[in-house]
Amino acid sequence: MEDKQKSQFMTMLAETLAAYDKPLPEQAIIRTWWSCLREFPIAQVASAFRAYPIDNPKFAPTAAAIAALCRVMDGRPGVEEAWAISLPSLDERHTVVWTEECAQAFGICKPILSGGDEIGARMAFKDAYNRLVSEARAARRPVAWLASAGWDKKLAAPVLERAVATGLLPAPAVAALLPAPEGGGLTQDDQARANLAKIREMLAGSQAEKERRRDEAVAARTAADEQWRQETNQRVTDYLSRTVH
């Protein structure tokens, strides 16, 4: 987190503690919170604050607990998901978008899998992946997604477009990997520009949908706040009327 995000962080902390009927702690304790969490991106901290109450409804979080959540919410897939992501790469037709740890772990188990021992390969993959992820998190290395291009570019298109839409890969890096637009007569640069335009069009639609959902959420929150205000005012009025009479 950056210093300019301190107020945003304070709001998240206050809202989370309020759910446990806890006030904001003293400044010295808040500084400890900030010191423990400032190494993580603000979005990762926000996700950890949202996730914590789901599994811990009774006990208010500590800075250490939120930091621990941040470390496992760094965007790296769990080991079972990582195996499912990696498995298609055995067929060289397929393009795979995976993390560095997925690629390294699959490289370790691939000879076993090619020999027909899927159970042994899966066990080797899981051991290697968990070790690599633990080492990366201990070294505070952010997740790195990359594309391993297969030779069938038609199969690559939906995989790469989904990776861009979900923010795993940047559009310019993906454009050159997509199949050439129909029509022919295009240079490699022309093809890359056409693919990039296609991706940007897709992202624009995705962004519009996100903005629509955000607006709906804001409207619903505003309506709920107004209802809460009216109900609170009515409770105060009813209380005062009873005490007067």
Describe the structure.
The chain has ten helices and two strands; from the N terminus they run αααααβααβααα. With 245 residues, the chain is mainly α. It has a two-stranded antiparallel ribbon with strand order 1-2. It is elongated. The N and C termini lie far apart (55 Å). The mean pLDDT is 80.
Instruction: Count every helix, treating DSSP H or I runs of 4 or more residues as helices.
Output: 10
Distance between the termini: 55 Å
The beta-strand count equals: 2
**Helix content class:** 55-70%
The major β-sheet equals: 2 strands, antiparallel
Overall SS class? mainly alpha
Tally of structural domains: 3
Which features would summarize this protein structure in a list?
10 helices, 245 residues, two-stranded antiparallel ribbon, mainly alpha
Helix-strand layout with pairing:
Elements: H1 6-18, H2 27-37, H3 42-55, H4 63-72, H5 79-86, E1 96-99, H6 100-114, H7 118-138, E2 145-148, H8 153-165, H9 171-175, H10 188-244
Antiparallel strand pairs: 1-2
What is the gist of this entry?
With 245 residues, the protein is mainly alpha-helical.
